[in-house]
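Entry 14. Two folds queued back to back today. First construct below, sequence then structure tokens.
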Amino acid sequence: MTSLSAEHGRPASRGEAPAGRFAALLRHRRWLLALVVVALLAEMAAAMAATAVRQSPTSDEPVYVVAGVEYLLEHDLRHNPEHPPLGKLIIGAGAVLAGPDFDAAYQGTQTQAGRHLLYESGNDAQRLLLAARIPVILLTLLFGLVVFAFARDLAGPAGGVAALALYAFSPGVIAHGSLATLDVPTAGLLVTSVWLAWRARRRPRLYVPLSGLALGAALATKMSVLPAVPVLMALVALSVWSSRRSGRAAVASAAGAAALAVAVVWASYLAVDPRLHWTTPADLPAVDGLRRLAVHLMPFPEPFRDGMRLQFGFEDLKWGGFLFGDAYRGTLWYYVPAALLVKTPLGTLALGAAGIAAMAALPRLRPAAPYVLGATAVLLAVAMTGSRDFGIRYVIFTPMLLAVAAAGVTLVRWRWARAAAGVLVLFVAVSSLRTFPYYLPYSNEAFGGPAKTHLHLHDSNVDWGQDLRRLADRLRDRHPGEKVWLVYKGGGVPAYYGVHASDPRTARPDEVHGLLVVSNSWIAKQDPRLVPLIRSSERIGGVGHSITIFRRP
């Protein structure tokens, strides 16, 4: 039977029916793609929400929350000057919407002020903390769309889905994306800037300014982004030059993007205090040489430059580290790659390596190498020179960009390439789901999984104070009425959760009897006051793979 044209009721030509079927198929594929993207982000949202609800404050969260609340309610920059205000404004917005009681007259340190806001001002600490975490969760989901779009630009819809799946099931991103901290917002904004710089190859007038704004937002969240500024300027210049414009236009575009980034930093400080009242802290570390010159030449507000001096002071300290069972003072140059090897799912490592090879081999992907691989390599190299071996949170941009690189595998025309990629993505998903809800202490199967992470790493890689609430539940359910000795690392107040304990480090060893509860980061430090107590105790359990419970006779 002859088909009719829907528009005029006339017989359809031979080409119209196949064209209609193709359009319907295309619409069907678009709907299917959208459903897959929504499903992956919904899974990630559920994982982060479940994690955020149960976890007690990590070490840094109370400070960021009180600083953000103070910025919004009192327009006062005095707390936490070592980081610019934008990320804390976002965190504080969530907390302020919860309607906290805030004591503006409190004069303690930033750590004391955070504790005062959460635990001493009549607020529901967990409710307020969850409200502060929600904006970061939402940002983390938005950055998932950036990873998807970046990978789709490079490798098509299949590559976008593969990259988004690796991102959505990344234990590190889930762990830190569910906290009211600055690491994931900074990394996500940085990846966004790289993606927009890549897009500037085709539409520089639109995407160069957007890339500069995203870079500025990252810089207005953490000043550790400063080494990325010349990298992004180079990428912007490369994109403009690749769009067949002159070298002079490329340089001007890079300078314009940098100027926009500086403007965003200024705007973030002025949003807190339009008059920019600021008093330099009396205990600010002195800097000299090139550092002093850099501080004075940077075109940023005085609070930012004083924050740089604080960060330089932190870098000059010798912090304690722990890697593969060895405690040390100072830093190890290979700590960052070693920690990433432990904390990254095996499937992501395999797909990332294959994606890097594909990016080098395939002409379609080769132009993206400076953006995806070059930026990652430079920023990792800078991170490896840092003095704080505390966790992969400082390089959380790595699993994001590694997911984008992995998308290139879907373009390889070997017979089993896509099937193998699918199996590896499924392996990552299973590995991630198995660690639920303990994402912070995740390690991959080659290193024994989350239960063994504390044997290899410490601090925010495994134990950042997140399980105090779970500890309270454990002691109440299994050890009611028993004497508890506690050494805890984190931002929570044990008594608030019902953990009433003594500190064994302040008692004679012969006085310590009963339950000895120790955060695994303290065990890793091999404190001479704790080592003999632990050696003479029996391990009887653990909480969240971050706290160990001993019984001491």
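Second construct, same run, same settings:
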Amino acid sequence: MMWWPTTRSIWKICDGLRLSTATRQWFTDSSDPFHRAPAAITYDRETNRMVLQDSRVWIAGLSDEGGASSWLAAVMKELVQPDKEELEKLQQFVDGVLWGGLQSKDGPHPYGVRKSLFYYQPDEMPANYYDSNFDWKSWTSWNKQASEAVDRSYDYPHVAAAYWVLYRLARDRQGLVTNHPWDWYLNHAYETSIAMTSYAKDLAVFGQMEGSIFVEILADLKREGMNTQAEALESKMRERADRWRKEAYPFGSEMPWDSTGQEEVYAWTKYFGYLDKAEVTLDAILGYDPAIPHWGYNGSARRYWDFIFAAKDRRLERQLHHYGSGLNAIPLLAEYREHPEDFHLLRVGYGGTMGGLTDIDQEGFASAAFHGFPDMLKSDPFSGDYGPNFFGHAWNTATYIVNHPEFGWIAFGGNVKRKGKVVAVTPHDSFRARVYIASLGLWLTLDAGKFESIEVNPVTGVVRVGLAGATEATPKGLLRIEQPAKVSGVGSYRPAAPLQSQRGAYVVPLQKETTWLALNAGR
């Protein structure tokens, strides 16, 4: 039976990921011959067992979308709701498996990311080690040499995202990430990004799943004053974007029918001002990403084939809320924030952002996607390649406040109450650190802290934000104020009270209870 999450249950869903990726999916066998421990590993919900062997070796090998997804989802969950105990495990994973295992420390390919830790090499293993129920004769059963190749670009964004999340938590929170200083993680995110363009050139010409991570790594390098690295990364990414600029339809992939390269292509073509290419990319997304009043299809980007590569039930069929949903929602909502009059973008983008949560069951186990053909109609038992979907959710989740011409004041991801002339919104999205007020074109984000309440006075234009009380890890809030949409008659917003700035964010000292901050629009 499918379980559709309500706004009240979203916070529990993010809690639920702790139940699976940090406990029952947490692999700890130190005698594993493939050195995969400790790590969050692929899980079979049908048998309630970890997937330690599969003839598609990457599924059991902690790499590619089909194998990296469990630890990627675990890492992205920490961006949304950090937990010290979970982060201790993930730091062990980074130091014990990722760095020096899945990713080379040195040798001919430093920072190269291998295709799989698990491989099929029977002459190196005891007799009958490999499960005879699998067919080990196809191309998917890479031997050791093939598994060590570092030429698959799609493996790099997962690793870069892991480093970037730990950088943000080490930089903006206290006592949560302690194994290395913040710059170690940011530098590793940078080096991983550069390595992709060096070792995986053939596939790096395409847009990557989770490729939005590279844009944010670049932004943080600039904020930190790491100008040499920023210039190098920007140069590498411009080379890719310049290629896309010359193509009529610049969002191909290793499979020409794919629908996942658009996310990064949109991000970089917007960044470099190639707006015609960003537009054609957005139009493609809107062509295969519908607004339909159905939980499985609303915002569900058309996907048919990845059950073959990352699921237990290998079938070509309509995948409902596969990771195309979460990833393609990223450009849709980014575009909406620039054009708040286009309500369709919000409907489809928010549907994709939320749709990925339907793949998580009540005990916190994620599925690759839902089997959409009528003879099955169930979630696939494998966690498979779910991770990019949760990446999209974590990247996008926010509360959107809209004054709709037909419905009046509404909130996507929150509850609305009228207090006289004031519109009060309580955020209930899973992050509670991003708010967009469409009538003002105002995008508020917190690098540290949580929104408890937002109050908008449509008459005066004053916005009041209530931030959750201080915690040991978060004694101060870090507020960014952006206005991606230029709304007529709306000035530039800034805090009414003078506040210090840190890397472009306002530093808000937090009280024990709710801390209120007024934002006014100047001329």
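Quick look at the second one. The chain has a mean pLDDT of 95. DSSP finds 15 helices and 19 strands in the chain.
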